[in-house]
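can u do me a favor
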């Protein structure tokens, strides 16, 4: 519907538009938007990444509503309402240079007054299948994208995808092999005007997962607790699990030494038995001696320094040896 009432005396002009549209190509979307209300950097982003040859997909439904005095749009004072809603399918969107694109995506996009929100119900980025993600601009006059993901995902897929983000050092995550699923959260703040202000934080709630150190047989199983990360670090406190089928408690932090070498520092307390000798890098003679002479199990404290550039793992273990014979 369409209603227009001209300005009269002290009453502002009033406009009401309620229009629906159906199937259009994704690169036609910018033509339906209130371009005069959108920051120029946001417009540049929309025009660049929704252009033919960049984005692909279909808008299967759309709804445009304008209700209020035109002179007061985008109605930040509550005097009216402006919205453009789209539902999309099979979306491919290369949203940022050198980042893995969003692919096979379905969901909806909403421009409401001075805000933009996109809900992604299905899709994938790199190796991560998306089942619940949101992309928002809370103020169309400020080009700062807020991206939030909350879903269940395999730990291996999360680590693999993080390695493919150009702003994350892949060495922070390449040292681990993982199995199992858990609850995953990721928050990204991306300022189109200031790329150096990029912020990435996230968590992964372990739920019986296995985390192994690459190129070794050291594996932690049945893990429970929360892993946290940002663009530089992976860390956790009070993770519980099992090591050689015995209980273990783990703290994990990524650090950088004075020479600039990045490494993970893992501190674990638990119990060990004779199977540990094979994992400590002992010479064959010492390993055979330990296996023949030491039986039983004892409590221990283990400190591992795991370089992220392929250098050998450094291990320090202490124990009261009570329980060994």
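np, heres the sequence
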């Amino acid at each position: 519907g369409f209603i227009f009432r001209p300005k009269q005396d002290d009453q502002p002009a009033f406009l009401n538009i309620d229009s629906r549209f159906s199937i259009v190509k994704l690169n036609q979307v910018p033509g339906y938007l209130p371009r005069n209300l959108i920051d120029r950097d946001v417009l540049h982003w929309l025009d660049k990444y929704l252009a033919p040859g960049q984005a692909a997909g279909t808008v299967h439904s759309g709804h445009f509503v304008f209700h209020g005095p035109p002179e007061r749009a985008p109605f930040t004072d509550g005097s009216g309402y402006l919205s453009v809603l789209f539902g999309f399918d099979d979306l491919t969107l290369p949203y940022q240079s050198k980042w893995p694109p969003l692919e096979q995506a379905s969901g909806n996009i909403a421009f409401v007054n001075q805000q933009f929100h996109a809900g992604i119900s299905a899709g994938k980025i790199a190796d991560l299948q998306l089942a619940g993600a949101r992309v928002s601009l809370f103020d169309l006059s400020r080009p700062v994208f807020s991206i939030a993901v909350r879903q269940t995902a395999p730990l291996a897929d999360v680590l693999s995808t993080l390695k493919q983000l150009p702003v994350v050092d892949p060495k922070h995550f390449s040292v681990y092999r993982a199995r199992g699923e858990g609850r995953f959260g990721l928050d990204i703040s991306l300022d189109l005007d200031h790329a150096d202000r990029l912020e990435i934080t996230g968590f992964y709630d372990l739920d019986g997962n296995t985390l192994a150190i690459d190129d070794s047989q050291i594996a932690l199983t049945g893990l429970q607790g929360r892993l946290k990360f940002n663009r530089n670090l992976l860390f956790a406190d009070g993770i519980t699990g099992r090591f050689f089928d015995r209980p273990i408690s783990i703290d994990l932090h990524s650090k950088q030494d004075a020479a600039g070498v990045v490494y993970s520092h893992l501190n674990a307390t638990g119990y060990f038995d004779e199977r540990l000798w094979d994992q400590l890098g002992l010479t064959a003679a010492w390993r055979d001696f330990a296996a023949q002479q030491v039986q039983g199990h004892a409590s221990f404290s283990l400190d591992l320094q795991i370089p992220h550039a392929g250098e050998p793992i450094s291990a320090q273990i202490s124990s009261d040896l009570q329980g060994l014979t």
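The longest helix spans residues 40-49. hope that helps!!
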